Amino acid sequence: MIARSLMIGVAAAALMTSGAMAADLYVPETPAPIYEEAGVGFEGLYVGVTGGAAFIEDDGFGTFGVVAGTNFAVSDPIVAGLEVELSGVHLGDEFVNETIGNAAVRGRLGVMMTDSAMVYALAGVGVLFSGDEDDDSVGYGEIGAGVEFGVTESVSIRGELAYLRGFEGDDTSAGRATAGVLFHF
After folding, report:
1. Against a cut of 0.85, is the pTM above it?
2. 106 in Cβ contact with 124 (< 8 Å)
3. How far is it, in rounded angstroms, from Cα 89 to Cα 51?
4. How does pLDDT run along the chain (185 residues), one tens digit per residue?
5. d(CA 14, CA 10)
6. Domain ranges of the chain
7. What is the CATH number of domain 44-184?
8. How far apart are CA 169 and CA 55, in angstroms?
9. How far apart are CA 138 and CA 181, in angstroms?
10. Selection from 87, 70, 56, 83 nearest residue 165 by Cα
11. What is the torsional sign of CA 37, 42, 139, 97?
């Protein structure tokens, strides 16, 4: 009788132990996320193309150009950068049917609104020049703002508004509205 009770006790202990071990081995599967937002790498080097309109003395003209720059994180969510632009403005029949060039350097200070959207302010200096030997170059200051959206991890689109004002007694002022596609490295 003691042997029988001992066997029942050992069997019950074995059954309870194997059930506890099996419960310890069960690992539930973690579900995969349904959607992850693809954030663009706004930090680092970028190049791009821009196009839009320039408004000089109440007349609008087409503008096109290329930009190159770099951004770096100041702190979360602040991004700062430096950009160089080479562009052209096609002046129609109102002035002279010619294309004038533009070279500018500007600083940008932005705030990341989401992983793939940044709002920024810009300020810089530049020079307008034409192919006419008698026409002097015009230096100018520039301020503006823009918004940039990440499309993929290495491509973004942006829109920008800027105000330009001539230096050295030149009271020429202009506005500019551009859109662009940037490729980030």
Report:
1. no
2. yes
3. 10
4. 666 665 666 666 666 665 555 555 566 677 665 544 456 668 899 999 999 988 877 777 888 999 999 999 898 889 999 999 998 877 665 545 566 788 999 999 999 998 889 999 999 998 887 666 656 677 889 999 999 999 988 899 999 999 988 876 666 788 889 999 999 98
5. 6
6. 44-184
7. 2.40.160.20
8. 20
9. 28
10. 56
11. negative
Phi, psi of 57, rounded to the nearest 5 degrees = 50, 55
Alpha carbon distance 133, 87 (integer Å): 19
CB 130 within 8 A of CB 100: yes
DSSP one-letter code for 24: H
Radius of gyration, alpha carbons of the chain: 31
119 contact partners, CB below 8 Å, separation of at least 6: 110, 111, 113, 145, 146, 147
| 63 in Cβ contact with 51 (< 8 Å) | yes
